[in-house]
Amino acid sequence: MINNFMLLDGEDIEYLWNVIQRRQMIFHPTVAPEGVFDYEKFYKFKRKKPFILFIDRNILSGLIKFCEQGSLRDKGESQTIGIIMAWAMLNDIAISAGPGVQERATQIKDQTYGLIELNKFFTIFDEYPMQMWLNVARGHITEIPPLKLVNGPASHVTAQYADGCDHYYMIVASMLHLVGLYRKRKIKPVDKMLDFIQWTYDNLLVSQYIMTYAVLLLTNQEHVKAPKDANSNDIARIAKGCENQAWDITYLSNWSTLYSNTDKYKEEFLFATNDVLLKHIFVNAHGKNGFNGLMHTVFPQKDYDRICDLIETRQDNRVKPDFGSSPNLYFYKLIDKEKQRILKSPFISI
């Protein structure tokens, strides 16, 4: 194991906090709704219970590659990893790779792969000291001693990583429906949004994050893209793009089940990402005026009123859809139905 001798002064602490605040990479609906921490709230929460930091797939894969190779081609990426690692260690915050592990294991339908990746992640924390991560964070070094990470699965882990989750499949279906609406160029954004709201209430549970993404996408907001190959004439490519995009929002959706039921858990949960789209979704869902403020900003008053009236009507008479004894089967059928809907629509030339 590398020597864990640590030298940390006030300047290092200030640097880490300043760069975390400036880059807006770590989020929480109360202490950092826009990726900028409220120090008073942060330490108040921390005194009550420990924090756990979830990292997304991009950060996880970059971290493992950095440690296996000893360097990354993108020095900015390695510095970002160093910043997150050093900041978490500074604040005695445990890091969880579960969501990132699940994304890849589900894509390739391989539980063993997920457990091997998880084992590699655990090894990294046993081998590298905070001082090294601080040097990476400050740009003093760009190379680290590479580790020979064992290709053996983590033991005593009961979580299933290769089966996806209900949130993921619901969001895949939502993405497919959104792509169908996105491709209809002659329909007004407000009518697309009304359609999506009706469809969601009829078929799924309502997620503030997919709703936020829908508003941003259907009103063509800057930095918000449709799933890859949304305009393709190949349904397999369209579906693949929707599946990949769905994982981004699944991170937020799964995380929300934890932070919204904080009394049920012994920990408080943070989320780290450097993904521009995820940042836009979270900030617009939890910023100063939240989802309602977003709608009021991007839609004319008349359209905004129509959307609010529909949501209020559907919410007042809410009957949640019955997923039956096999929710996955329900979601698979809905996903296939949305694929067929796209196939029946006129394709757009690429």
Word description of this protein:
By secondary structure, this protein is mainly alpha-helical. The chain is built from 15 helices and 4 strands. A 4-stranded mixed β-sheet has the order 1-4-2-3, with helices on both faces. The radius of gyration is 22 Å and the shape is globular. It starts with 9 loop residues before the first helix and ends in a 6-residue tail after the last helix. The relative contact order is 0.14. Residues 1-5 have low confidence and may be disordered.
Write the layout of secondary structure elements.
Elements: H1 10-23, E1 26-27, H2 39-48, E2 51-55, H3 57-69, H4 75-90, E3 94-96, H5 98-108, H6 111-127, H7 130-137, H8 166-182, H9 189-203, H10 208-218, H11 235-259, E4 268-272, H12 276-286, H13 290-298, H14 301-316, H15 327-344
Parallel strand pairs: 2-3, 2-4
Antiparallel strand pairs: 1-4
Helix pairs in contact: 1-4, 3-5, 3-6, 4-7, 5-6, 8-9, 8-10, 8-11, 8-15, 9-10, 9-14, 10-12, 10-13, 12-13
SSE order in H/E notation? HEHEHHEHHHHHHHEHHHH
| Number of E-type strands | 4
Computed structural class: mainly alpha
Ranges with pLDDT <50 over ≥5 residues?
A: 1-5
**Residue share in β-strands:** under 5%
N-end to C-end Cα span: 54 Å
Number of helices: 15
Mean pLDDT: 91
Helix content: 55-70%
Largest beta sheet: strand ordering: 1-4-2-3
Shape: globular
| CA radius of gyration | 22 Å
Largest β sheet strand count, sense and barrel closure: 4 strands, mixed
